Each structure stands twice: as C-alpha cells, then as structure tokens.
Amino acid sequence: MATAAPSPIPRSQGEVDISATAALMADPSRAAVLMELTDGRALPPSELAEVAGVSRSTMSEHLAKLHKAGFLAVEQGGRNRYYRLSGPEVATAVEALAALAPRTEVRTLRQANRAGALGAARTCYGHLAGRLGVGITDAMAARGYVEREAEVFLLTDPGAVFLADLGIAKPPRAGKACNDWSERRPHLAGKLGVALTSRLFELDWVRRTERRRGVEITDRGKRELSERLDI
Asked: For the residues 53-72, what does the mean pLDDT come to?
C-alpha cells in the first residue's frame, strides 16, 4: 500500500525582519533623505543629493532602494520626478529613531543655526514639532483640550470649542502622540495635529522659513498664542 505524501507546509509570513529595515536606514545618505522629507514635501533628486552631500548618480541609487522598500513614493512633474515619504508611518518611524539617536557634533555656525532653528520649530509630515509643537501640545493638555490615552490624543468638548474659535468647525476627534526627537517629549501629530497646523498657517500665526522644514512664529502668532495658550 502506497504511503501518502506529506502535506506541504503552507506558505505564510513569518516574524518581521527589523534588521533589513534598520540596515536600509543606517546609511548616512539615505538617513539624511528620510529626515529631510519628514515634513511631507516632495523634492527632486538634485536637492536631495545636495542635502546628503553626494552626486546625483549616487543619490539615484539610494532613492531606488528606498522606493523599492516602500519608504518613498514618486510624483511626476513634467520631465522631473519628485520623491516624498510614502506615508505618515514612515515619518513616525524616522522621528522615533531620531529621538533615540545621539546628537552629532556641531562644527560650523551654519550647522548651529540650522540645529537651533529646527529645534525651536519645524514641521513633521504636516504637523508642528520642536519646542513650538511640544509647547502647544502641553498647553492644550494642561487646559483639558486634549487627553492622552496611550499613544493617542483625544479631543475633548472644550478642545472642540477652542478649535472652533480658531476657525476649525469640524476638527478630527483624535491625533497621535509623536515623540519629538529634539524635545524628547510628545507633540500632537496625526489628523488632529495636521488640522491645527494647517489652520495656524492660514491665520499667518506661523510661517515657513528659508531653512528646510523650519517654521517661525509671526508677531501676531506670538500675541495670539500667548493670549490663548499662555505660550
């Protein structure tokens, strides 16, 4: 009597391979690209090559690897290609790693100015980060406008009134807690953080600066934030 052949082991996905992702992000040039794109912009290879300090051909190789791994998405603009992060989860991962990473030594005045500006206020995939982002988050939590539950910030009824007064009639009811790499504390991210940040730009309380990802508070913004949130 013939022996029945053993049933094949069903193919399924195993545990996640963190090392593969970590190895991809460990290259300094690719890490510089990911950090540069955390504010949600789409940039051409030429600008990203300048940021990373490598040639255009070398940058093309790095971008191809990041795109293949799902870190980046590509947009076509005429004859040019523009690269951006594939989603907010990539920005969150980069910020989380940045919060754990050691700080590099500042060797020039330009580096010092850039580090100081980004530490003060910057954008992170559509929401505010740095001392400004953390300060707004802390002030809203202190006033009961948001309540944190694990990794989520929930908008309260008083918070909805506060945002309505700013002109956000139907705000998202929740946002994410994103660990800020420069402040080592969470700032308000996710849909709620993006909605608030977008409105602050519309009100001209904050503006983008010439420094990549940098943000500054306008005089009107200083008055309003001081009056409404005591910042």
From this structure: 95
